[in-house]
Amino acid sequence: MKPEAVFPNIGKTKLLFQTPAIGLNKEQCPIVRENGYCLPQFIFCVEGEGVLETEGKVFSLEEGAVFFLPEGRAHRYYGKGKWVTSWIHLAGEGMPQALECMGIKDAIVLNGMDTSRFERIMRQILTELKNDRLNGMERSSVQIYDLLMEFYMLQHELAQPQSKGKQRLLPLLDYIDEHITEQMTLQDLANVLNITPQHLCRTFKEAFSMRPFEYITRRRIQISKRYLADRTMKIAAVGQMVGIRDVSYYCYNFKRLEGITPNEFRAQNF
What we know:
Blueprint: E1 4-6, E2 22-27, E3 31-33, E4 41-47, E5 50-54, E6 57-61, E7 66-69, E8 75-79, E9 84-89, H1 95-101, E10 108-110, H2 116-131, H3 136-159, H4 163-168, H5 170-178, H6 186-193, H7 197-208, H8 212-228, H9 235-241, H10 247-258, H11 262-269
Antiparallel strand pairs: 1-2, 2-9, 3-8, 4-7, 4-9, 5-6, 5-8, 7-10
Helix pairs in contact: 2-3, 5-6, 8-9, 9-10
């Protein structure tokens, strides 16, 4: 992929999120900033490996890594051989508050994560700024927010030890949704992952802090809210649509989880 860069003329434009500079796929030269940079920035490692030194720490940067540098913080980074990066400088009226709310304030390095969506959003931002001369700034503002949220979620995922366990359970969650109207046994669930029921219960509780059937009940109640929008459908029928055949049991669990009855939920929302 060829190197590309855009330097929008922000001027007096006031948007919550914007960028004065974004570049993709550039062979990165060594950077030394004793006083840091005047804006916060994200840098994405496209190819090769690099090193970041900041705040008295040294970080190795793998291919696919993304890192955040706050403004005004001394740093240096360089490649181990050929190193290709993409980068974006962050600005806008709402940027300081957004970074603070998301807890993105110190240098942060994310290695070993699936950052493909982060990379796609960066490309979308550059494309909007380059191709849409009328509304590119506004459209890219929305995507810059998406970029912040993607980084925030990646950071949160890395901080949660159970996140890898949740990833392993995704086929089971899909199975539950596909069979939500059916009566599932613990053995049925364990067979999806080819593990024992005991192993399944332990793994599930570590990931979600609840047992599999509590998750299924919660999922059934969540899905049932869609059917409550149809006022012609009786409450018993709604429960049956999500695999709960006993209307009393459906109402009991709905109130236990939502704090109100299905009829009260229907009256408040539809």
